[in-house]
Design a protein that fits this description.
Elements: E1 8-12, H1 15-18, H2 31-36, H3 54-67, E2 72-76, H4 79-82, H5 92-107, E3 111-117, H6 123-126, H7 136-151, E4 157-162, H8 164-173, H9 185-209, E5 215-219, E6 221-222, E7 226-227, H10 232-243, H11 257-265, H12 270-275, H13 285-291, E8 297-302, E9 307-310, E10 316-317, H14 338-350, E11 354-359, H15 376-394, E12 399-405, E13 424-427, E14 432-435, H16 437-448
Helix pairs in contact: 3-5, 7-9, 8-9, 9-13, 14-15, 15-16
Bound molecules: D-gluconic acid.
Protein backbone atom coordinates (compact mmCIF):
# COMPACT_ATOMS: atom_id res chain seq x y z
CA UNK A 1 0.00 0.00 0.00
CA UNK A 2 2.45 2.64 1.17
CA UNK A 3 2.00 6.39 0.91
CA UNK A 4 -0.83 7.85 -1.15
CA UNK A 5 -0.11 9.11 -4.63
CA UNK A 6 -0.66 12.73 -3.69
CA UNK A 7 1.12 12.50 -0.33
CA UNK A 8 2.52 15.91 0.58
CA UNK A 9 6.28 15.96 1.22
CA UNK A 10 7.26 19.22 2.83
CA UNK A 11 9.52 21.08 5.18
CA UNK A 12 8.59 23.48 7.97
CA UNK A 13 9.85 26.63 9.65
CA UNK A 14 8.40 29.29 11.95
CA UNK A 15 8.48 33.06 11.64
CA UNK A 16 10.50 34.02 14.71
CA UNK A 17 12.94 31.17 14.15
CA UNK A 18 13.92 32.16 10.60
CA UNK A 19 12.76 35.58 9.50
CA UNK A 20 14.93 38.07 11.36
CA UNK A 21 14.22 41.67 10.28
CA UNK A 22 12.79 42.05 13.75
CA UNK A 23 12.59 45.79 13.63
CA UNK A 24 12.03 46.30 9.93
CA UNK A 25 9.10 47.55 7.92
CA UNK A 26 6.90 48.25 10.90
CA UNK A 27 6.96 44.86 12.60
CA UNK A 28 5.82 45.06 16.24
CA UNK A 29 7.38 43.25 19.18
CA UNK A 30 6.32 39.78 20.24
CA UNK A 31 6.89 38.20 23.63
CA UNK A 32 9.87 36.40 22.11
CA UNK A 33 11.56 39.69 21.16
CA UNK A 34 11.25 40.91 24.71
CA UNK A 35 12.26 37.59 26.25
CA UNK A 36 15.43 37.27 24.16
CA UNK A 37 16.59 40.74 25.10
CA UNK A 38 16.53 40.01 28.82
CA UNK A 39 19.59 38.49 30.46
CA UNK A 40 19.89 34.73 31.02
CA UNK A 41 16.79 33.66 29.17
CA UNK A 42 18.31 32.21 26.00
CA UNK A 43 21.55 30.27 25.54
CA UNK A 44 24.53 32.54 24.85
CA UNK A 45 22.25 35.58 24.87
CA UNK A 46 21.08 34.70 21.35
CA UNK A 47 17.98 36.27 19.83
CA UNK A 48 15.92 36.18 16.63
CA UNK A 49 16.74 39.71 15.47
CA UNK A 50 18.47 38.40 12.36
CA UNK A 51 17.97 34.63 12.56
CA UNK A 52 18.30 33.19 9.03
CA UNK A 53 17.43 36.54 7.46
CA UNK A 54 14.66 34.69 5.62
CA UNK A 55 12.78 38.00 5.40
CA UNK A 56 15.33 39.16 2.83
CA UNK A 57 16.43 35.80 1.49
CA UNK A 58 13.11 34.03 1.04
CA UNK A 59 13.49 33.91 -2.74
CA UNK A 60 16.84 32.18 -2.54
CA UNK A 61 15.46 29.82 0.12
CA UNK A 62 12.39 28.95 -1.90
CA UNK A 63 14.44 28.32 -5.02
CA UNK A 64 16.64 26.01 -3.00
CA UNK A 65 13.53 24.18 -1.81
CA UNK A 66 12.41 23.86 -5.39
CA UNK A 67 15.76 22.49 -6.51
CA UNK A 68 15.51 19.88 -3.76
CA UNK A 69 12.12 18.75 -5.02
CA UNK A 70 10.26 19.83 -1.88
CA UNK A 71 6.53 19.90 -2.58
CA UNK A 72 5.18 21.99 0.28
CA UNK A 73 6.38 24.63 2.71
CA UNK A 74 4.83 25.07 6.13
CA UNK A 75 5.71 28.52 7.44
CA UNK A 76 4.14 30.65 10.11
CA UNK A 77 3.02 34.23 10.00
CA UNK A 78 4.40 36.74 12.43
CA UNK A 79 1.23 38.25 13.88
CA UNK A 80 3.06 41.48 14.72
CA UNK A 81 4.35 41.89 11.19
CA UNK A 82 0.72 42.15 10.11
CA UNK A 83 -0.60 43.89 13.23
CA UNK A 84 2.25 45.48 15.18
CA UNK A 85 0.02 45.89 18.23
CA UNK A 86 -1.88 42.66 17.65
CA UNK A 87 -5.12 44.41 16.61
CA UNK A 88 -6.03 47.55 14.68
CA UNK A 89 -4.83 48.56 11.25
CA UNK A 90 -2.76 46.10 9.22
CA UNK A 91 0.83 46.97 8.39
CA UNK A 92 0.95 46.99 4.59
CA UNK A 93 4.62 46.10 4.32
CA UNK A 94 4.10 43.02 6.43
CA UNK A 95 1.06 42.07 4.36
CA UNK A 96 3.14 42.47 1.20
CA UNK A 97 5.97 40.31 2.52
CA UNK A 98 3.80 37.21 2.93
CA UNK A 99 2.02 37.93 -0.32
CA UNK A 100 5.37 37.96 -2.14
CA UNK A 101 6.51 34.84 -0.33
CA UNK A 102 3.33 33.01 -1.35
CA UNK A 103 3.73 34.13 -4.97
CA UNK A 104 7.29 32.89 -5.01
CA UNK A 105 6.25 29.51 -3.61
CA UNK A 106 3.52 29.11 -6.19
CA UNK A 107 5.84 30.18 -8.98
CA UNK A 108 8.19 27.41 -7.83
CA UNK A 109 5.41 24.82 -7.65
CA UNK A 110 5.53 24.59 -3.85
CA UNK A 111 2.27 24.39 -1.91
CA UNK A 112 2.06 26.89 0.97
CA UNK A 113 0.78 25.71 4.36
CA UNK A 114 0.26 28.66 6.67
CA UNK A 115 0.52 28.32 10.44
CA UNK A 116 -1.26 31.26 12.01
CA UNK A 117 0.43 31.10 15.35
CA UNK A 118 3.82 29.63 16.15
CA UNK A 119 4.44 31.30 19.52
CA UNK A 120 5.38 34.92 18.70
CA UNK A 121 2.50 36.48 20.61
CA UNK A 122 2.08 40.26 20.26
CA UNK A 123 3.70 41.95 23.25
CA UNK A 124 1.02 44.66 23.23
CA UNK A 125 -1.68 42.00 23.73
CA UNK A 126 0.38 40.24 26.38
CA UNK A 127 0.33 43.52 28.28
CA UNK A 128 -3.44 43.44 28.16
CA UNK A 129 -3.45 40.04 29.81
CA UNK A 130 -2.88 37.90 26.74
CA UNK A 131 -4.66 34.54 26.85
CA UNK A 132 -5.98 35.34 30.32
CA UNK A 133 -8.11 38.09 28.85
CA UNK A 134 -11.35 36.71 27.38
CA UNK A 135 -10.98 39.19 24.55
CA UNK A 136 -7.97 37.18 23.39
CA UNK A 137 -10.43 34.84 21.66
CA UNK A 138 -11.56 37.69 19.40
CA UNK A 139 -8.05 39.09 18.92
CA UNK A 140 -6.89 35.80 17.49
CA UNK A 141 -10.02 35.07 15.48
CA UNK A 142 -9.92 38.52 13.86
CA UNK A 143 -6.25 38.15 13.00
CA UNK A 144 -6.91 34.67 11.57
CA UNK A 145 -9.80 35.93 9.47
CA UNK A 146 -7.64 38.72 8.11
CA UNK A 147 -4.93 36.27 7.06
CA UNK A 148 -7.46 34.06 5.29
CA UNK A 149 -9.20 36.98 3.65
CA UNK A 150 -5.88 38.30 2.39
CA UNK A 151 -4.18 35.12 1.20
CA UNK A 152 -6.85 32.49 0.57
CA UNK A 153 -7.09 33.48 -3.07
CA UNK A 154 -3.80 31.59 -3.36
CA UNK A 155 -3.47 29.49 -0.20
CA UNK A 156 -5.68 26.51 0.62
CA UNK A 157 -4.16 25.12 3.82
CA UNK A 158 -4.17 26.85 7.17
CA UNK A 159 -3.18 25.66 10.62
CA UNK A 160 -4.46 27.56 13.63
CA UNK A 161 -2.06 26.78 16.49
CA UNK A 162 1.33 25.15 16.69
CA UNK A 163 1.93 23.19 19.88
CA UNK A 164 -0.34 24.81 22.45
CA UNK A 165 1.29 22.36 24.88
CA UNK A 166 4.47 24.39 24.57
CA UNK A 167 3.39 27.98 24.31
CA UNK A 168 1.15 27.59 27.35
CA UNK A 169 3.07 24.90 29.29
CA UNK A 170 6.59 26.17 28.65
CA UNK A 171 5.64 29.83 28.36
CA UNK A 172 3.38 30.26 31.39
CA UNK A 173 3.88 27.26 33.68
CA UNK A 174 7.48 26.06 33.64
CA UNK A 175 8.64 29.43 32.33
CA UNK A 176 11.32 28.09 30.01
CA UNK A 177 9.87 29.84 26.97
CA UNK A 178 8.61 33.39 26.46
CA UNK A 179 7.16 35.09 28.35
CA UNK A 180 8.93 33.03 31.03
CA UNK A 181 6.17 32.97 33.65
CA UNK A 182 5.16 30.48 36.31
CA UNK A 183 1.47 31.12 36.76
CA UNK A 184 -1.16 29.45 38.92
CA UNK A 185 -2.81 26.31 37.57
CA UNK A 186 -6.06 28.21 37.63
CA UNK A 187 -4.67 30.74 35.21
CA UNK A 188 -3.17 28.01 33.08
CA UNK A 189 -6.48 26.21 32.60
CA UNK A 190 -8.20 29.48 31.89
CA UNK A 191 -5.64 30.29 29.19
CA UNK A 192 -5.97 26.83 27.81
CA UNK A 193 -9.74 27.26 27.50
CA UNK A 194 -9.31 30.61 25.81
CA UNK A 195 -6.78 29.20 23.34
CA UNK A 196 -9.25 26.44 22.45
CA UNK A 197 -12.07 28.94 22.07
CA UNK A 198 -9.82 31.13 19.95
CA UNK A 199 -9.18 28.14 17.72
CA UNK A 200 -12.91 27.48 17.31
CA UNK A 201 -13.85 31.08 16.73
CA UNK A 202 -11.01 31.44 14.24
CA UNK A 203 -12.27 28.39 12.32
CA UNK A 204 -15.72 29.98 11.96
CA UNK A 205 -14.37 33.34 10.87
CA UNK A 206 -11.77 31.82 8.56
CA UNK A 207 -14.41 29.86 6.65
CA UNK A 208 -16.47 33.02 6.28
CA UNK A 209 -13.48 35.01 5.06
CA UNK A 210 -12.21 32.37 2.62
CA UNK A 211 -12.12 33.20 -1.07
CA UNK A 212 -12.11 29.52 -2.03
CA UNK A 213 -12.83 26.40 0.01
CA UNK A 214 -9.95 26.16 2.45
CA UNK A 215 -8.70 23.30 4.56
CA UNK A 216 -8.08 24.02 8.23
CA UNK A 217 -5.97 22.00 10.65
CA UNK A 218 -4.38 22.13 14.05
CA UNK A 219 -0.79 21.21 15.03
CA UNK A 220 -0.40 20.09 18.63
CA UNK A 221 2.52 17.97 19.81
CA UNK A 222 3.00 14.87 21.95
CA UNK A 223 5.24 12.04 22.92
CA UNK A 224 4.02 9.07 20.96
CA UNK A 225 4.65 5.87 22.89
CA UNK A 226 4.74 2.50 21.20
CA UNK A 227 4.29 -1.10 22.31
CA UNK A 228 7.16 -3.45 22.93
CA UNK A 229 5.13 -6.28 21.41
CA UNK A 230 2.24 -6.15 19.01
CA UNK A 231 -0.21 -7.97 21.26
CA UNK A 232 -3.73 -6.55 21.75
CA UNK A 233 -3.01 -6.09 25.49
CA UNK A 234 0.21 -4.24 24.92
CA UNK A 235 -1.34 -2.02 22.24
CA UNK A 236 -4.31 -1.21 24.45
CA UNK A 237 -2.02 -0.27 27.34
CA UNK A 238 -0.14 2.18 25.13
CA UNK A 239 -3.35 3.63 23.73
CA UNK A 240 -4.70 4.29 27.22
CA UNK A 241 -1.48 5.90 28.33
CA UNK A 242 -1.28 8.00 25.18
CA UNK A 243 -4.63 9.65 25.84
CA UNK A 244 -4.46 9.81 29.63
CA UNK A 245 -4.39 13.18 31.38
CA UNK A 246 -1.29 13.54 33.56
CA UNK A 247 -1.33 14.60 37.20
CA UNK A 248 -0.77 18.24 38.03
CA UNK A 249 2.90 19.09 37.64
CA UNK A 250 4.87 21.65 35.65
CA UNK A 251 4.47 19.25 32.70
CA UNK A 252 0.72 18.86 32.95
CA UNK A 253 0.10 20.71 29.68
CA UNK A 254 2.15 18.10 27.86
CA UNK A 255 -0.64 15.76 26.83
CA UNK A 256 -2.80 14.86 23.86
CA UNK A 257 -6.40 14.63 24.97
CA UNK A 258 -6.83 17.85 26.95
CA UNK A 259 -5.82 19.78 23.86
CA UNK A 260 -7.37 17.64 21.15
CA UNK A 261 -10.53 16.00 22.50
CA UNK A 262 -12.30 19.38 22.85
CA UNK A 263 -11.32 20.37 19.31
CA UNK A 264 -12.32 17.15 17.60
CA UNK A 265 -14.71 15.39 19.97
CA UNK A 266 -16.30 18.46 21.55
CA UNK A 267 -15.57 17.47 25.14
CA UNK A 268 -12.75 17.54 27.63
CA UNK A 269 -11.52 14.09 28.71
CA UNK A 270 -13.24 12.77 31.84
CA UNK A 271 -10.06 11.91 33.72
CA UNK A 272 -8.76 15.46 33.23
CA UNK A 273 -12.06 17.01 34.32
CA UNK A 274 -11.76 15.01 37.51
CA UNK A 275 -8.05 15.62 38.13
CA UNK A 276 -8.10 19.33 37.38
CA UNK A 277 -11.56 20.15 38.73
CA UNK A 278 -10.38 22.59 41.38
CA UNK A 279 -8.60 24.73 38.84
CA UNK A 280 -10.96 24.89 35.89
CA UNK A 281 -12.75 27.96 34.58
CA UNK A 282 -16.44 27.84 33.83
CA UNK A 283 -16.92 25.56 30.84
CA UNK A 284 -20.25 25.82 29.04
CA UNK A 285 -21.91 23.76 26.33
CA UNK A 286 -21.74 26.81 24.14
CA UNK A 287 -17.97 26.94 24.62
CA UNK A 288 -17.62 23.31 23.63
CA UNK A 289 -19.74 23.82 20.52
CA UNK A 290 -17.51 26.75 19.57
CA UNK A 291 -14.28 24.84 20.21
CA UNK A 292 -15.34 21.80 18.17
CA UNK A 293 -15.98 23.45 14.83
CA UNK A 294 -15.25 20.86 12.16
CA UNK A 295 -11.69 20.90 10.86
CA UNK A 296 -10.30 19.19 7.79
CA UNK A 297 -7.09 17.57 8.90
CA UNK A 298 -5.34 16.72 12.10
CA UNK A 299 -1.74 17.90 12.24
CA UNK A 300 0.61 16.51 14.85
CA UNK A 301 4.25 17.22 15.62
CA UNK A 302 5.96 14.00 16.69
CA UNK A 303 9.62 13.62 17.59
CA UNK A 304 9.84 10.68 19.99
CA UNK A 305 8.15 8.43 22.48
CA UNK A 306 8.74 5.66 24.96
CA UNK A 307 8.62 1.94 24.47
CA UNK A 308 5.91 0.54 26.72
CA UNK A 309 5.74 -2.91 28.21
CA UNK A 310 2.98 -4.35 30.40
CA UNK A 311 2.77 -6.12 33.72
CA UNK A 312 0.71 -9.24 34.28
CA UNK A 313 -2.46 -7.25 34.89
CA UNK A 314 -1.97 -5.44 31.57
CA UNK A 315 -0.87 -2.12 33.10
CA UNK A 316 1.57 -0.02 31.11
CA UNK A 317 5.14 0.06 32.32
CA UNK A 318 7.67 2.52 31.05
CA UNK A 319 11.08 0.96 31.59
CA UNK A 320 14.23 3.08 31.57
CA UNK A 321 15.92 3.15 28.22
CA UNK A 322 19.00 0.95 27.91
CA UNK A 323 22.41 2.48 28.51
CA UNK A 324 23.72 3.99 25.29
CA UNK A 325 20.24 4.32 23.75
CA UNK A 326 20.51 6.33 20.50
CA UNK A 327 19.89 10.05 20.90
CA UNK A 328 20.10 13.26 18.94
CA UNK A 329 22.37 16.23 19.69
CA UNK A 330 19.71 17.83 21.86
CA UNK A 331 19.52 14.53 23.79
CA UNK A 332 16.16 13.43 22.47
CA UNK A 333 15.84 9.66 22.07
CA UNK A 334 15.69 8.19 18.58
CA UNK A 335 12.46 6.18 18.55
CA UNK A 336 11.25 5.67 14.96
CA UNK A 337 8.22 3.58 16.04
CA UNK A 338 6.55 6.73 17.37
CA UNK A 339 5.82 7.66 13.78
CA UNK A 340 3.85 4.48 13.23
CA UNK A 341 1.88 4.28 16.48
CA UNK A 342 1.23 7.98 17.09
CA UNK A 343 -0.64 8.55 13.82
CA UNK A 344 -2.46 5.26 14.23
CA UNK A 345 -3.83 6.07 17.69
CA UNK A 346 -4.72 9.61 16.61
CA UNK A 347 -6.54 8.42 13.53
CA UNK A 348 -8.49 5.81 15.47
CA UNK A 349 -9.64 8.36 18.00
CA UNK A 350 -10.19 11.43 15.85
CA UNK A 351 -11.07 10.00 12.42
CA UNK A 352 -9.41 12.88 10.61
CA UNK A 353 -6.73 12.68 7.94
CA UNK A 354 -3.38 12.99 9.71
CA UNK A 355 -0.49 15.21 8.69
CA UNK A 356 2.83 15.00 10.47
CA UNK A 357 3.37 18.74 10.76
CA UNK A 358 6.86 18.36 12.26
CA UNK A 359 9.47 15.68 12.71
CA UNK A 360 13.25 15.76 12.48
CA UNK A 361 16.38 15.97 14.59
CA UNK A 362 19.25 18.17 15.66
CA UNK A 363 22.80 16.97 15.01
CA UNK A 364 26.32 18.28 15.54
CA UNK A 365 26.56 19.40 11.95
CA UNK A 366 29.61 21.26 10.67
CA UNK A 367 31.23 22.08 7.36
CA UNK A 368 33.75 19.37 6.53
CA UNK A 369 37.12 19.90 4.87
CA UNK A 370 35.49 19.19 1.53
CA UNK A 371 33.11 22.11 2.06
CA UNK A 372 30.08 19.84 2.42
CA UNK A 373 27.92 19.06 5.44
CA UNK A 374 27.74 15.33 6.06
CA UNK A 375 24.96 14.25 8.39
CA UNK A 376 24.68 10.47 8.19
CA UNK A 377 22.88 10.38 11.54
CA UNK A 378 20.05 12.50 10.18
CA UNK A 379 19.77 10.36 7.07
CA UNK A 380 19.57 7.25 9.22
CA UNK A 381 17.01 8.94 11.46
CA UNK A 382 14.80 10.00 8.55
CA UNK A 383 15.06 6.64 6.88
CA UNK A 384 14.02 4.83 10.03
CA UNK A 385 11.21 7.24 10.90
CA UNK A 386 9.75 7.40 7.41
CA UNK A 387 9.83 3.62 7.14
CA UNK A 388 7.71 3.48 10.29
CA UNK A 389 5.40 6.19 8.97
CA UNK A 390 4.87 4.07 5.90
CA UNK A 391 3.81 1.23 8.18
CA UNK A 392 1.14 3.53 9.62
CA UNK A 393 -0.11 4.06 6.07
CA UNK A 394 -0.09 0.28 5.60
CA UNK A 395 -2.06 -0.09 8.84
CA UNK A 396 -4.80 1.95 7.15
CA UNK A 397 -4.16 5.38 8.68
CA UNK A 398 -5.35 8.14 6.37
CA UNK A 399 -2.02 9.98 6.10
CA UNK A 400 -1.86 13.13 4.03
CA UNK A 401 1.59 14.56 4.49
CA UNK A 402 4.88 14.93 6.29
CA UNK A 403 6.72 18.16 7.07
CA UNK A 404 10.34 17.76 8.02
CA UNK A 405 11.55 20.07 10.78
CA UNK A 406 13.32 21.96 9.55
CA UNK A 407 14.14 23.25 6.11
CA UNK A 408 17.17 25.04 7.52
CA UNK A 409 19.02 25.47 10.79
CA UNK A 410 17.38 28.22 12.79
CA UNK A 411 16.79 29.89 16.13
CA UNK A 412 15.91 27.02 18.46
CA UNK A 413 14.04 29.03 21.11
CA UNK A 414 15.71 29.00 24.54
CA UNK A 415 18.62 27.09 23.02
CA UNK A 416 19.38 29.88 20.58
CA UNK A 417 21.54 28.80 17.65
CA UNK A 418 23.20 25.98 19.57
CA UNK A 419 21.07 23.25 17.96
CA UNK A 420 20.89 22.54 14.24
CA UNK A 421 17.64 20.92 13.06
CA UNK A 422 17.90 21.81 9.36
CA UNK A 423 18.49 19.73 6.28
CA UNK A 424 20.13 22.91 5.00
CA UNK A 425 23.09 24.24 6.98
CA UNK A 426 23.10 27.95 7.79
CA UNK A 427 26.35 29.74 8.43
CA UNK A 428 25.08 32.53 10.66
CA UNK A 429 28.15 34.71 10.03
CA UNK A 430 27.66 34.85 6.27
CA UNK A 431 24.06 33.59 5.93
CA UNK A 432 25.36 31.09 3.43
CA UNK A 433 23.14 28.04 2.94
CA UNK A 434 24.65 24.61 2.31
CA UNK A 435 22.30 21.68 1.71
CA UNK A 436 23.40 18.85 3.97
CA UNK A 437 23.66 15.29 2.69
CA UNK A 438 20.24 14.68 4.23
CA UNK A 439 18.70 17.30 1.95
CA UNK A 440 19.78 15.28 -1.08
CA UNK A 441 18.64 12.11 0.63
CA UNK A 442 15.20 13.66 1.21
CA UNK A 443 15.15 14.78 -2.41
CA UNK A 444 15.67 11.18 -3.53
CA UNK A 445 13.11 9.92 -1.06
CA UNK A 446 10.53 12.39 -2.34
CA UNK A 447 11.28 11.46 -5.94
CA UNK A 448 10.95 7.77 -5.17
CA UNK A 449 7.65 8.35 -3.34
CA UNK A 450 5.95 10.74 -5.75
CA UNK A 451 4.35 8.70 -8.45
C1 LIG B 1 8.43 22.64 18.22
C2 LIG B 1 8.42 23.81 17.42
C3 LIG B 1 9.66 24.04 16.64
C4 LIG B 1 10.94 23.56 17.23
C5 LIG B 1 11.20 22.11 16.90
C6 LIG B 1 12.48 21.58 17.50
O1 LIG B 1 7.90 21.67 17.75
O2 LIG B 1 8.93 22.67 19.33
O3 LIG B 1 7.33 23.77 16.58
O4 LIG B 1 9.60 25.41 16.58
O5 LIG B 1 12.00 24.29 16.75
O6 LIG B 1 10.17 21.33 17.37
O7 LIG B 1 12.45 21.69 18.89
Amino acid sequence: MGFKKDFVWGTATASYQVEGAAKEDGRGESVWDVFCHEPNRVACGHNGDVACDHYHRYKEDIRLMQSLGIKAYRFSISWTRLFPEGTGQPNQKGVQFYSDLIDELLACGIEPYITLFHWDYPYALYQKGGWLNDESVNWFADYAAFVVQTYSDRVKHFITFNEPQCFIGLGYLSGVHAPGLKLFYRDIFKMCHNVLKAHGKAVIQMRKAAKQPIRIGYAPTCNADYPEKETPENIEAVRKRFFACPDLSPDVMWNVSWWSDPVVLGKYPEDGLEKYKDYLPEITEKDMALISQPIDFYGQNIYNGHQITIDEAGNALCPERAAGFPKTAVQWPVTPECLRWGPRFLYERYHLPVIITENGMSAHDCISLDGQVHDPNRIDFLHRYLTQLEKAADDGVDLEGYFLWSFMDNFEWQLGYTERFGIVFVDYETQKRIPKDSAYWYQNWIEAHSK
